[in-house]
From TrEMBL:
Coarse class of the protein's main subcellular location: nucleus
Protein location: Nucleus
GO cellular-component term (any): nucleus
Family designation: Belongs to the WD repeat DDB2/WDR76 family.
Primary gene name: DDB2
Protein name: Protein DAMAGED DNA-BINDING 2
Gene3D superfamilies, per database record: YVTN repeat-like/Quinoprotein amine dehydrogenase
Alphabetized Pfam families for the sequence: WD40
Any GO BP annotation: DNA repair
Example of a GO MF term: damaged DNA binding
Each WD repeat, start to end: 256-289
Length: 463
């Protein structure tokens, strides 16, 4: 009855007043001992050492990475030669020419090749939520493909350019993509501001809604992991918008989050879905702590260098899916810094709850920028795409001396087919593929008719 927190509303009583029962020892505890008490929040684990890599494997730069939902140690990759590595899949990535590959970084030298998946740039990929052997991909050729990863055979779900090339004003390119398991939907957005719903069940296939300013590119879509009816989109009109799929129509967004420049990406937090993380070309990473609160202004803005992407894949800050506090993000950095006489472009780990830089990881032998980064959903592993190369990062082993760790670096890596090994450093030139893409668009119809998988061939690899 004397508890200060006791409330019995059925009797109409109020909480008892807090009694002044503190003793001098309580103040000593607050001033001197509390700072030594360990926090409930666990320490961040940062993968900061390269464990293995494929060097210059792609003919063009990597555009995205994705981890397999259940299997480990396997990476999907592709290059200009239309190669598909057909190994049990774990981490997927695609090259600038629309190919898809698979690499098992636990068995570096086992590779099998097949034909390509799409005829133009592969911009995004998502696993089928109900079948991990099926992969959905969106491309700048205006198609959504469904690929069986066991056979490597793609099938077209949607083609927005059925009549072929009639100039850039009419050519539809597909960028942001996500899946909605509850509604059986594959959602994809184009370069004219429209959202398309390709239905697996109840809704009309190909339905389009204007979700951003007409004529502007929509580069990102993300369904809320807890409330799948909430959709987050972002684009070149300097806005990220929240939508309700139950009443989706033009002009019906729930909130519009204004930014200074183009928004490269926008994601809900991976566990609770209550936070929003955006990356903008105004060199800001923004976070909103609650989608149920005031969204007029972001909770925090972190200044970061990532505003250049003419010859690069756009930088995107990604959540750590293992972090229970939903605060750790990873993003590559554009501006280089001098580390012992070498200009390096580090990968930054940032605590978005405080805005502090947790770690900046770099490898002296990697002199290229790493705009594509993805953290493993289960292990302490980072996969990064730097130009045409793939790198797998793990945490340093604290028990081993530094000399032994230095000797272990790049102990295992492979070089791409018909590529020369660099002299001590793995660098790469910039590649602007817009001209190649326009030429490919004009003959994309003929390329689509030649999608049959070829006989698997064993590719060459060396350590």
């Amino acid at each position: 009855m004397t508890c200060p927190h006791r409330v019995a509303m059925e009797h109409g009583v109020v909480p008892a007043p807090h009694r002044h029962s503190r003793i001098p020892l309580d103040y000593v505890f607050e001033r001197q001992l509390r700072r030594e008490v360990p926090k409930i929040k666990p320490a961040f684990v940062v993968p900061d050492q390269v464990d293995c890599a494929i060097i210059k494997f792609h003919s063009r730069r990597i555009t995205c990475l994705e981890f397999h939902p259940t299997k480990n140690n396997v990476v999907l990759s592709g290059d200009k030669m239309k190669i598909l590595f057909d190994i049990p899949c774990f981490l997927l990535l695609d090259s600038k020419k629309g190919q898809l590959g698979i690499w098992d970084y636990g068995m570096l030298h086992e590779k099998i090749v097949c034909r390509s998946i799409q005829s133009c740039i592969l911009n995004n990929m998502k696993f089928n939520p109900v079948n991990e052997g099926i992969l959905f991909t969106s491309s700048s050729d205006g198609t959504i493909c469904c690929t069986d990863l066991e056979t490597g055979i793609p099938s077209i779900l949607m083609d927005l350019n059925p009549d072929g090339w009639h100039g850039p004003a009419n050519w539809v390119m597909l960028y942001g993509m996500d899946t909605n398991i509850e509604r059986g939907l594959v959602l994809v957005a184009d370069n004219f501001g429209y959202l398309y719903l390709d239905a697996r069940s109840r809704m009309r296939s190909g339905q389009s809604i204007l979700v951003h300013k007409k004529g502007t590119k929509v580069v990102g879509l993300h369904c809320n992991p807890v409330h799948p009816d909430l959709l987050l989109s972002c684009g070149n009109d300097h806005f990220a918008r929240i939508w309700d799929l139950r009443r989706l129509q033009a002009g019906s967004c729930l909130e519009s989050l204004a930014h200074g420049r183009v928004v490269n990406s926008a994601y809900f937090s991976p566990l609770t879905g209550t936070k929003i993380l955006t990356t903008s070309e105004d060199n800001r990473i923004r976070v909103w702590d609650s989608i149920f609160g005031n969204l007029e202004r972001s909770s925090r803005e972190v200044v970061h260098s990532h505003d250049f992407n003419r010859h690069l894949t756009p930088f995107k800050a990604e959540w750590d899916p293992k972090d229970p506090s939903e605060s750790l993000v990873v993003i590559g950095r554009y501006i280089s810094e001098n580390y012992n006489g070498v200009a390096l472009h580090p990968i930054d780990f940032i605590d978005m709850s405080t805005g502090q830089l947790v770690a900046e990881v770099m490898e002296p032998n990697i002199t290229t920028i790493s705009p594509v980064n993805k953290l493993h959903p289960r292990d302490d592993i980072l996969a990064s795409g730097s130009s045409r190369s793939i790198f797998i990062w793990r945490p340093k082993e604290a028990s081993k001396p530094e000399e032994e760790q230095q000797g272990k670096r790049f102990k295992e890596f492979t070089c791409g087919k018909n590529e020369k090994k660099s002299k001590g450093k793995f660098d790469d030139e910039s590649d602007d593929d817009f001209g190649d893409f326009i030429r490919n668009c004009k003959r994309s119809r003929s390329l689509k008719s030649d999608r049959k998988p070829t006989q698997a061939k064993q590719s060459k690899s060396r350590t």
